[in-house]
Amino acid sequence: MIGKLINDRVRADKQAMNELYNTGYYGRPKKDGLELALVEAVYLLSRNRLEIELDGHMMDFAGLFKIASMRQKYFELKYIVYRDLRERGFYVQSSVTDLRVYPRGGHPGKTPARSFVHVQSERVPLPLEELLHYLNAAENVRKQMILAVVDEDSDITYYEVARNKPQGAMEAIYPNIHANATFLEDRVVLWDGEPSHTLYENGLYGKLLDSERLQLSLVEGGFLMKNSIIEMSDRAGKIMDFEDFIQKASEIEPEFLQKYNVYEDIRNRKMVAKTGFKFGTHFRVYDQIQSPSKIPHSEYLIHSIAEEHEFTLPVMSRAIRLANSVRKRMLFAVNGRNGIEYIDIGRIKM
Questions:
Q1: What is the DSSP string of 175-236?
Q2: Which of 49, 59, 113, 311 is most exposed, with minimal Cβ within 10 Å?
């Protein structure tokens, strides 16, 4: 059976419909025959099920592969993933997000596709905007979004990408408390014993310095200040308003406001956020804490990112692997125009 290479497609006659599409669901039927994507054509050539003609000459595998790589960006990566999925028993077609994968036991014409797969090299940064484009495309047609990362050894790691709306069962604020606090060099101290214990025992705010005083992180101090639970002064005793606080905190930590916005959203979702420094992220997050003496495992690691963020794939991989190793979900909190949204990225087995 012979197909002709035309631009970035291979066209075969109606015989290919019976031998390739009806038996293996390769390509897409056209009224005059079958149209195959480059990855499909190269795969079929490698299995001796199709010959490819260009300008009257028959092509070998190496020749077709080289031309395909010139006509389609990152062709070799897409071929590696396509071949892997096919040999795992999935029916696969090309799509707007590189590949469309059908569930086991399903195929085109019988069942809807299950997943959209975007293929990415480990060496190439992935802009958040691009990732969200592919995620939106998948969500708009109710498909699973999979990111397939091909590493230097041509091994593939598959990640599922989805939006997450975490929600806890903690009270967000304690309006009956009002106490005085001081902004020191890079943290806040609450001096009064009773409110210190109330905030620590009931909301796991801060960490007790001793039996009377509570140390708060900058994001905790800002949240309690904004909600009129504490009144903030500088070390000279001057009362600070929230704008003063944000300005001073941003001098200490340039991305403070981005981080604070996520902390505030987490607290308003009735969850508890504590530093995720030991895990290399901004926050470790708990759905609920009954008592500081019985702190459960945190459910999430959350890292705040801006809309213009670019993922470096090795860094992303380390963060996700670490989260998995300590039985947590890795969420990336996007500071967007419409508030905070959470992108859940986790490794999956195909």
A1: TT--EEEEE-SSSEEE--HHHHHHHHHHH--SEESSSS-EEE-HHHHHHHHHTTSEEEE-TT
A2: 49
CA-nearest of 243, 179, 241 to 216 is: 179
Count of residues in the chain: 350
Whether 142 and 324 have beta carbons less than 8 Å apart is answered as no
| 297 part of the active site | yes
Range 1-71: architecture per CATH = 3-Layer(aba) Sandwich (3.40)
Which positions ≥6 away from 322 have C-beta within 8 Å?
279, 280, 301
Q: How far apart are CA 221 and CA 230, in angstroms?
A: 8
DSSP string, 263-308: HHHHHHTT-EEEE-GGGTSSEEEES--S-GGG----SEEEEEEETT
How far apart are alpha carbons 350 and 344 in whole angstroms? Answer: 18
- Set 21, 102, 263, 286: catalytic member: 286
Distance of CA 126 to the CA centre of its chain: 11
- Beta pairing partners, 216: 188
* Catalytic entry in 278, 294, 297, 349: 297
Residue with tokens 């987490």: 266
Cα–Cα distances (Å) from 89 to 24, 82, 84, 150, in that order, read: 10, 11, 9, 19
User: Which one, of 218, 219, 147, 224, lies nearest residue 192 by Cα?
Assistant: 224
Q: Which residues pair with 174 in a beta bridge?
A: none
CA proximity to 148, closest of 172, 115, 178, 179: 115
Calculate mean pLDDT across residues 140-147. 96
Number of helices and strands (H, E) in the chain?
11, 23
pLDDT digits (tens, 9 = 90+) for 296-334: 999 999 999 999 999 999 999 999 999 999 999 999 999
Q: At what angle do helices 38-46 and 61-71 cross, to 10 degrees?
A: 170
Question: Could you read off the pLDDT of 256-297 as tens digits, one per residue?
Answer: 999 999 999 999 999 999 999 999 999 999 998 988 888 999
Catalytic residue among 43, 158, 328, 342: 328
Residue 75 in contact with residue 68, Cβ under 8 Å? yes
**Domain map of the chain by residue range?**
1-71
Q: Mark whether 328 is an active-site residue.
A: yes
74 noted as active-site residue: no
